[in-house]
Specification:
Elements (H helix, E strand, L loop, with lengths): L3 H4 L9 H7 L3 H20 L1 H4 L2 E2 L2 E2 H29 L1 H6 L3 H26 L8 H26 L1 H5 L25 H4 L6 H6 L3 H29 L1 H5 L6
Antiparallel strand pairs: 1-2
Amino acid sequence: MIHQSVTNKPSPAPANPVTLKRIFERQWLHLLLLVLLLGGLAPAVRSDPVRVGVLFGLATPIWIVVALILAVTHQSYVWFCWRTQLHASLLTRTFGDRGFPLYATGFAILALSRITSVVMVAAANRGTVPLDLTGLRVLAVVMTVPVIYLFYSVHRYFTFRRAFGVDHFDPSYHSRPLVRRGIFRFTRNGMYVFGLLMAWLPGLWYASAAGLVLALFNHAYVWVHYFATERPDMKRIYPKVMATPQPPA
């Protein structure tokens, strides 16, 4: 059962400088790259094709701001929960066996809200890409195929619990091998390579310049999460596996 090996141990000592250092490990990189991404996004957001459109009474720039806030909130939430649990068992000390389910619920709500906000941006800004709509929609359908295969692979081989980050909560996962089946046969970073293709679908479907700009931001920003948060965590959770040379992503 999740947390059993954690909750049976004495509560860890309060956070010390070493723990805080590990919690904030490489977050300077997260902040730096986020600032650079937002700076690069600014000229595009100021352009006319990206600014036009209204949905439910809100102009496209407002929807873009909402989408950006949700993206940053989502990834900051995951960083905080993962790191404070991994290095201080904060969630399981506070909520016991409910720690992971509560975290996973928050993750799901933020992830769905993040994707929904991209759809809202694209719908508000529809028809601003001067390309054949049928061709763009065919491309969207084609890109849906690896996304569906990814979700099948996660369900069949990886599990959604592990995708949410249960290995930060349950030490029994630390001795398990990394998954190399399904879509993970082709890349160990299936969630990052194929999962964020979802962000491109609304912009293609609605021929939305703003939707495509936001998709590019989201796809780049999720790699910031990988290099600033997930990869350092993986090296601590799976030190032997991560030390072994892996096939390229």
